[in-house]
Amino acid sequence: MYSSITPLLLVDGYNIIGSWSSLKATRDRHGLEQARHELVETLINYTVHKGYKTRVVFDSQYQKTPSTIEHHSQHLSICFTAWTQTADTYIEKVCAAFFSRQETDHDRIIVATSDRDQYLTAMGYGAEWMSVDVLAKDIQSSRSQVKRKQQSNKRSRGRLLFNCLDTQSQEKLARWLS
């Protein structure tokens, strides 16, 4: 049974980029912007499939800018921290607000990182932790489930022209044939 409140997945963006070999290779060949883009694209469908609200958190990388949040979809947003704030401190504040019940939009918070200190902090505030390896495996599993479901839907429709028609056309054809 699902809760009516959506879980929040907080992703330590640069930690994931530095941990996944495919994203590290993209970062090294094409730069951080492309690696960030690939991470976000990877998370969009996963987020919808799992029923999460996802916030990918990136450090400001020494840019003297205020904190910003970009909404990429209904389910996924990106937070660039203010220049004096790290992704770790941002995630810690969200977890602390959740622990003190100031954060009431979510009944669960899951923190995806390989950072041991971040893991301990998140758990201490009552959030759940997901390692970068588990996140990668869960994303792959989610892709496989979606692919199987799509293939099943294609097979169930069959190869007959009748099955390719919309419902109204199918009804007209059935009346004509009877």
Automatic annotation (TrEMBL):
Superkingdom: Bacteria
Any Pfam family: NYN_YacP
InterPro entries referenced in this protein's UniProt entry, alphabetically: YacP-like (IPR010298)
Protein name per UniProt: NYN domain-containing protein
